[in-house]
Amino acid sequence: MDENRPPYRPLTDTPVDQPDERRRGVVRVEPGQPFEHFCPDCGRWGTFGFGSDSIKGIPGVWYCAEHREAGERRWKAAGGLVASGD
Length: 86
Ligand SMILES: [Zn+2]
Prior knowledge:
By secondary structure, the protein is mostly loops. It is built from 1 helix and 4 strands.
């Protein structure tokens, strides 16, 4: 273990399976912190990701189970898959 690792700082003290306005749409990619992604609609933990590509460093958009369908429709309407072949 890396002892110089900064301590984990949760965004809010609300459990991740609870809605939280302050976390809506937050995708956090920070050195030393876990990759965190919250639903843009409610602020719960985003289980279903669209457009995420860890190799390219694209965090994507993440939705909870409740908003997954709406999120997927929105994602496809906005152009679908990850842009490629630029
Ligand atoms: Zn949600």
